[in-house]
């Protein structure tokens, strides 16, 4: 059964598919961190705009982090994501993965490897 719907992005006005054709009826946006309240964003955003909105919101949040705040941050209690998302959890520099502060916050502690973006 096809549960996907065609929607129009409330930001860029492009058409996109909302929902999934698989049996679990899971939308592509469920792969992103659940950081938005439904009342915040109005209607749905396309994948590109949604990712940009997530990056902006997460970057604003991580910029407020201090080592003391990091120990009791909101990201630890969020449901675990199955896959990492480029631009949110990491970026690639000279062929290497560089993990961003959000990745470290979700992990919940310092690994002791002197990571560039460690908030702890």
TrEMBL record:
Pfam families from the UniProt entry: DUF5522
Highest taxon of the lineage: Bacteria
Entry protein name: Cysteine-rich CWC
The organism of origin for this protein: Flavobacterium pectinovorum
